[in-house]
């Protein structure tokens, strides 16, 4: 009995090439996440002293311009009363936060940018700000929400405690905040698990809003400035262009994010529940401290965020080059 003829299916070369290119493209997204995490963690480690001074300034509730509220005064006071190592406070929580938050918000920015461009079938152009802002907002929302517990722990570890910092290390801080929330939930007749998680996610609204505002101005302005300067032939791809674009981006995001940052820090460190929520916090700051209350710590915010932005993008672009990925 004759055997049935064997059918051989040959995949067209173009399809094979497309599959390989897609795999390479997907692996680049993973490398971009790694590069974003590395660059932001390195920048945060360098800028931690300015970050903790900024937090201390933002937690001070006295009138603007009062003595002892300048970033220099706060820094000198910390070094004198708590020791120079106090300027490294919360660095472990900061590293964890950057790994999750910045790894996602910056590392997935181009993924969402490509996806939205494809879904819109080109209606959202790569040259336009709409695509950039939408991609940055989505990435920042996810990163901010997931990283909120680490962000809250960082703020708590960096706050001032007259009787000494109650948190021995990062795990102890997480456990203490969770247990405190669980205990309060039990007292109120609620679920301890929900109470513990709620304690770690206090201020998540302000955190997410800040993440969106920061990313929409920092990442998008860097991307747009680079794109515009190259298109007009003002500068070519390279370190000088990365430095100029990141300098402008650092200033823009400092201005837009500082008010939200003040509200976020106040809410996260509000252990006595002075504020009913983000809007109540905004109201109290406006009534008690005036509009300039939202810009407390701006000098240190700019010093920290501006330096952080420049270092981050310079390192990020260099890591991309080492990974064999084209510049952002």
TrEMBL record:
It is a multi-pass membrane protein. Solcar repeats lie at residues 27-115, 127-228, 237-322. InterPro entries: MCP_dom_sf (IPR023395), MCP_transmembrane (IPR018108), Mito_Metabolite_Transporter (IPR050391). It holds the Pfam family Mito_carr. It is found in: Membrane. PROSITE patterns: SOLCAR (PS50920). This is Mitochondrial carrier. It comes from Lentinus tigrinus ALCF2SS1-6.
